[in-house]
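FAQ: What does the model actually see?

It sees only this:
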Amino acid sequence: MLRISRTNMSVLGVWWYTVDRWMLFAIIFLGCIGLFFSLAISPAEAISIKTNTYFFLTRHFIYFFISLFFLVSISILPSSLVRKLSLIVFIISFIGIFLTLIIGVSSGGASRWLSAFGFTIQPSEFLKPSLIIVVSWFLARSRLESDITLQIIPLIVTLIVISLLLLQPDVGQTILIILTIMGLLFFNGLSWKIISALITISFLGFIFLYLNFSHVASRVNNWLAGWFFPESLDNRPTQISAAIDAFENGGLFGQGIGEGWMKYNLPDAYTDFIFAAVAEEGGLFLIIVIILIYGFLIIRGFSKITLVSDYANQLAASGLLLIFGLQTLFHMAVNLSLAPAKGMTLPFISYGGSSILSLGICMGMFLSLTKKDDPRIKKMKKNFSEPGINF
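And it is asked to produce this:
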């Protein structure tokens, strides 16, 4: 383990003794699991599209280490700079989402990506953590200043973002953002009556999506048919049915690394269905280990949030951890046929450049906002508090 003296007052020294190292190492461990299974699963996709066998693994490796750089760099920043950074990222991402509707790369009937220098980027991924910070700041100021009008601005911004996402369309990210914002409102002390009204509106919104977006209706219908009317599928394989088969094939100890069949039958086995692919090759025991790591991150994360003294930082950190947990839960639920397919990655394990990079930013912001107070800094502030001396 890296050893840094407690007397080291450099930026790195202070960061090392204030950041949550257990969460940092758990995230790195998840990333290593992702790289390992990218080596085992992604070559099948590379061969199917007739490119270099380790094309996706190479890119996954690059994305993860850039994400790790973002994670560490942002976690070093003070919370005031994190808020400023989030505003910059939000503005750039918002412009990017708007541009996807004009010059975006289309795939599968959706226009969610921008292309540059041989790479594609999904602006909505970077919008999520920055939007949470911006909304949290307004909600916190609204509560601390007892000014309810400050809650109107973030709600209007959120509605505009949701509208742009639905125009792409990107229903999965829309649902994720809506649930996270509702969670922030709940954390901020919104009454149960208003929460119930928002849940009702969300349910009506889901009905609207089902009636107006054919791909949403198709996925929901296939999911319901798989549960209640399997004979109606006429033995047609679906992504979810293939995922369930993968879990069954994996058993307790798995088929062996590289021995699964799912990666040859599903084009998204290394991204949206990585959880099922890992279950097939690694078995139930490995899946339990992965679930425990995510559970550790969520539980420890919320325990750290309770120690944060600044309310705006506390609310923002809660939102960042919530969206991280919800994305994890949705991915696992889809793979287990507990929810319709949404096309959502498993944090730090699935392949996906924009997803991995944005998650590095998200958790870097979280680690920055939840850093503990260093008693050495407090002592120095006290010693240099005379007039004319600024720390």
